[in-house]
Amino acid sequence: MKIIAYGIRDDERPYLDQWSKDQGIDVKAVGDLLDDTTVDLAKGYDGAVVYQQKPYTASVLDKLAANGITNLSLRNVGVDNVDTDAVKRNGFKVTNVPAYSPAAIAEFTVTELMRLLRRTPTFDRKQAAGDLTWAPDIADELNSMTVGIVATGRIGRAAMKIYQGFGAKVIAYDVYHNPELEKAGIYVDSLDELYAKADVISLHTPATKDNNKMLDDAAFAKMKDGVWILNPARGALIDTDALIRALDSGKVAGAALDVYEDEVGIFNTDFGSFEAIPDERLKNLMKRDNVLVSPHIAFYTKTAVKNMVQFALNNNKQLIETGHADNQVNF
Ligand code: COI
């Protein structure tokens, strides 16, 4: 059995080598992402393990299939960047890693919220300039707030526990009701109800065609004045222009954004200076003390990266050996 793994970073390499040694399976590690220029490297392999935030286009998937590879294992959870028509047309079997570390994302999300509530970005900036004063940057307390969780999958539930540990009241909206949370009376009946009641809105839903820009002008208008917005999920969930308007008006008190609708080609790139970042809207957000932008790093822990690599390789091996895998995605 021969597997090719694309887009392998230095921090992933030890986990890949360990798996390869433990399993006695040859894994070719390629630093470049899977695209039209690298797809031919996969010729002769039985499966491909991939990770990327940019789209898996029809053109790339058609070429991969023409090279005889239809076992495709993503090292991440989201599948919104996969061309589903090309998957179906070519008979791809695709796996993801649904739970590499829900805690990693949940912990980061709450950390960012605490930084916002305690105004640490402002104090850090003032202190760096020698200003050790307090006012006017008085903080808010999470324990007296209501947090609205959008989607109670693994990450939403992990975040919920941490918010509850801080003493916050938690409510949630999801079309699917987790039986335990249902019993605990966590769910509200509609997003509108969640918007009306929550002091903090914590997004943990995958991006679908139905929730594109779900936080738009109309949604912000339904929220409490001074609401805090957290998005560690997908950039497509927020209409960035509407968010900027809501920040300008004070409707939104602040936001922590680990994802951004135009992040492809920008996040995980070193531009050398703030000025050189080629996105004015993003820079508008980054300049504000009450907005925390991070380059899609909520997932980026040692535990998560190890699991992403090793679970994806296990999935690919299972696909190659049996023609199906436990973590196969049903498009
Ligand atoms: C995911 O697993 O879907 C993530 O958002 C992590 C990422 C680096 C793509």
TrEMBL record:
The UniProt GO MF terms for this protein read: D-lactate dehydrogenase (NAD+) activity; NAD binding
Q: What keywords would UniProt list here?
A: NAD, Oxidoreductase
Ranges annotated as spanning the membrane: none
Record-linked Gene3D superfamilies: NAD(P)-binding Rossmann-like Domain
Pfam families, per the entry: 2-Hacid_dh, 2-Hacid_dh_C
Q: Where is the D-isomer specific 2-hydroxyacid dehydrogenase NAD-binding domain?
A: 112-298
Q: Mind telling me which SUPFAM superfamilies this protein's record contains?
A: Formate/glycerate dehydrogenase catalytic domain-like (SSF52283), NAD(P)-binding Rossmann-fold domains (SSF51735)
InterPro entries with a match to the protein in the record: D-isomer_2_OHA_DH_cat_dom, D-isomer_DH_CS, D-isomer_DH_CS1, D-isomer_DH_NAD-bd, D-LDH-like, NAD(P)-bd_dom_sf
Q: Where is the D-isomer specific 2-hydroxyacid dehydrogenase catalytic domain?
A: 8-330
**What PANTHER family does the database record attribute to this sequence?**
2-HYDROXYACID DEHYDROGENASE HOMOLOG 1-RELATED (PTHR43026:SF1)
The family line of this record is: Belongs to the D-isomer specific 2-hydroxyacid dehydrogenase family.
- Which named protein is this? Lactate dehydrogenase related 2-hydroxyacid dehydrogenase
**Organism expressing this protein natively:** Levilactobacillus senmaizukei DSM 21775 = NBRC 103853
